[in-house]
Model the fold of this input.
Amino acid sequence: MVRDVELTDFPYGLNSRTQANSRHPREGWRQQAGNTVLISGAGPIGALTVLSVNTVGASQIFVAEPNPARRKLIESWGLCAGVFDPITDDVPALIRDQTTVGVDVAIECAGNEKSLAACLRSVRRQGTVVQVG
Done:
């Protein structure tokens, strides 16, 4: 468990519990600089996961999020190689177009079956899928 005093204050009005949850994805697996990462779901936990994997040194970050306002926020940060709408876009195909083999790590932050399925279809062979949502 992460104590409140160990957390850095993040902008965007997110509280310390959300920050603690966003740390779990990178603590449950070894993120290495240069990894390609898909984050499925860009709510508070997914958004902080974007910041977290960027800080660790992900080479490419992709985000799948159906909410247009959340996609716009993530795009405004300029950290992602692609921000996709999973309702209208074929996320695994778009990711393979940019990576040829799929992402090294897919992190599911939405908590639904379709999101997890997109992660499983987007990760490369012997890649890692982390379910947070």
